[in-house]
Task: inverse folding
């Protein structure tokens, strides 16, 4: 019993301790509830205040709406009155103009009648004078008298004096119609070049003659005058900087010796791509190297973006005045400046530039419509535009998914030259659900038949390689950041270092040799932009040099 009493005592003491802790917790919770109650009351009061404000605001809004409706009705009534007054004024002006025209015609007729009246009176006076002369001569021979005519009647051969008035009146009437154009002329109604016609209005654009006279391309750019330089800037798509250039530029040498900082300071050229465009053009003037890409203007580039399936960037490229020469020297940071951040879109532009290099920047190298080929080769597929790829999808019974490729950047160059671009990537871009396995298998079969067995094997090997990162549709490109150790080499770097280009010139030349002989059996190593191994490139380059370029 003693042990039981002790256990009961211990339990009782524990319960007492729990009771005290519970009492303490209850007091704490009570304080918290009271604090929350105070907060709730404050919130309720603020809610009531905001409700009052909301009600007053709604009342003001209703009053404003009523006032606006009344103003709108007054406006409509005033517009109706104005339209009525305009019609009335037009009617009055029409009547006034018609009356003025009739008055003008009446005045003209009155003047003509007055002239004729004066002439008739003058003829009457002459008649009386000749009659007096006839009476005074006392001519005895009546025959001679009958054939005697006045000076005026000789023209109309009037034989007697009684026809004098009628004769003379008809002869003056005939003379009043002389002095103008000969209406009876049969050729008067026909148009003759060099005759009377309205002159042409002022020309709004430069003619080729004025363009050539403004700038003689045989003269070195350094010797161009200020006006020639400003005219060239306007024709080159940089006309917004002409006004400041007139204040700074003395001749062409001013631009040749200027730095990008001078362009920004003196010409107000804040856009870095505008400065790059100007630098590339000035470098072409200095080196006198003729580049085929310089013949493609910035208007063509916007159409090119449509062809490669990236029309959403047309405004940025157009605002930056990106032309064919700039396309050739685009860098990753340039694309980021143009708000192109998608990794897939970077690869799309990279492969499209390779296709341009392979075709020597032929503006019509991309194929937009299906041809007569039944089974196109990879050398033909690499030139397919985005629209042509959609036509292929319709041909393989995937027409319902074809519109999803708009704005995707998918074109033939990306399909062939990018080893990470597979049928799975295309299925993601087409939004084909993963559960539709049969549809995806059909797409994979059609994709393999399109790119060829060799390319399919190559893509499979590249995907199975160690360290392979699959190509996704959501990956973003980040700008290149320089490390601390790289700052010492900034002055040694060339501004046009090919390693910074999205499509390096050397790799493009290598791709040119490969794409020109692209076929179903020999298109290995054709994507230099896509991180191939150096030994693979060396092998392809040696093979290209051994075989030589094909026509």
Result:
């Amino acid at each position: 019993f003693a042990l039981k009493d002790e256990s009961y005592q211990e339990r009782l003491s524990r319960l007492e301790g729990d009771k005290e802790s519970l009492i303490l917790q209850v007091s704490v919770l009570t304080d918290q509830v009271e604090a929350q109650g105070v907060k709730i009351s404050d919130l309720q009061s603020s809610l009531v205040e905001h409700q009052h404000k909301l009600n007053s605001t709604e009342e003001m809004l209703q009053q404003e709406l009523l006032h606006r409706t009344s103003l709108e009705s007054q406006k409509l009534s005033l517009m109706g009155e104005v339209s009525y007054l305009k019609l009335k004024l037009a009617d009055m002006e029409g009547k006034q103009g018609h009356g003025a025209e009739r008055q003008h015609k009446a005045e003209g007729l009155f003047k003509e009648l007055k002239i004729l009246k004066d002439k008739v009176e003058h003829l009457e006076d002459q008649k009386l004078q000749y009659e007096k002369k006839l009476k005074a001569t006392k001519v005895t021979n009546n025959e001679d008298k009958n054939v005697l005519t006045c000076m005026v009647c000789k023209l109309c051969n009037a034989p007697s004096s009684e026809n004098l008035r009628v004769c003379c009146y008809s002869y003056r009437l005939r003379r009043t119609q002389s002095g103008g154009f000969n209406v009876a002329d049969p050729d008067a109604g026909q148009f003759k070049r060099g005759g009377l016609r309205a002159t042409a209005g002022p020309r709004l654009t430069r003619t080729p003659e004025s363009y050539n006279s403004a700038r003689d391309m045989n003269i070195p750019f350094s010797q161009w005058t200020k006006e020639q330089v400003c005219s060239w800037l306007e024709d080159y798509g940089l006309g917004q900087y002409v006004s400041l250039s007139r204040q700074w530029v003395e001749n062409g040498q001013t631009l040749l010796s200027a730095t990008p900082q001078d362009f920004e300071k003196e010409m107000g050229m804040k856009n870095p791509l505008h400065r790059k465009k100007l630098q590339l053009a000035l470098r072409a003037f200095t080196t006198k190297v003729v580049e085929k890409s310089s013949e493609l203007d910035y208007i063509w580039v916007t159409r090119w973006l449509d062809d490669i399936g990236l029309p959403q960037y047309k405004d940025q490229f157009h605002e930056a005045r990106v032309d064919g020469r700039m396309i050739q020297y685009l860098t990753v940071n340039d694309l980021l400046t143009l708000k192109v951040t998608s990794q897939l879109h970077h690869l799309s532009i990279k492969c499209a530039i390779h296709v341009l290099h392979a075709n020597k920047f032929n503006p019509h190298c991309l194929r937009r419509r299906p041809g007569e080929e039944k089974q196109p080769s990879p050398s033909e597929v690499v030139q397919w535009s985005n629209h042509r790829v959609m036509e292929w999808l319709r041909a393989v019974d995937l027409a319902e998914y074809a519109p999803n490729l708009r704005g995707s950047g998918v074109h033939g160059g990306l399909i062939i030259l990018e080893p990470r671009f597979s049928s799975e990537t295309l299925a993601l871009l087409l939004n084909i659900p993963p559960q539709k396995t049969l549809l995806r298998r059909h797409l994979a079969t059609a994709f393999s038949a399109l790119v060829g067995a060799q390319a399919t094997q190559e893509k499979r090997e590249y995907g199975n390689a160690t360290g392979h990162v699959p190509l996704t549709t959501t990956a973003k490109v980040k700008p290149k950041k320089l490390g601390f150790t790289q700052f010492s080499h900034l002055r040694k770097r060339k501004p046009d270092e090919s390693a910074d280009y999205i499509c390096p010139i050397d790799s493009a030349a290598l791709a040119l040799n490969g794409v020109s002989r692209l076929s179903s059996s020999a298109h290995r190593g054709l994507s230099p932009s896509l991180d191939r191994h150096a030994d693979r490139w060396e092998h392809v380059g040696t093979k290209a040099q051994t075989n030589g370029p094909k026509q």
Remarks:
- The CA atoms of residues 382 and 412 lie 4 Å apart.
- DSSP finds 22 helices and no strands in the chain.
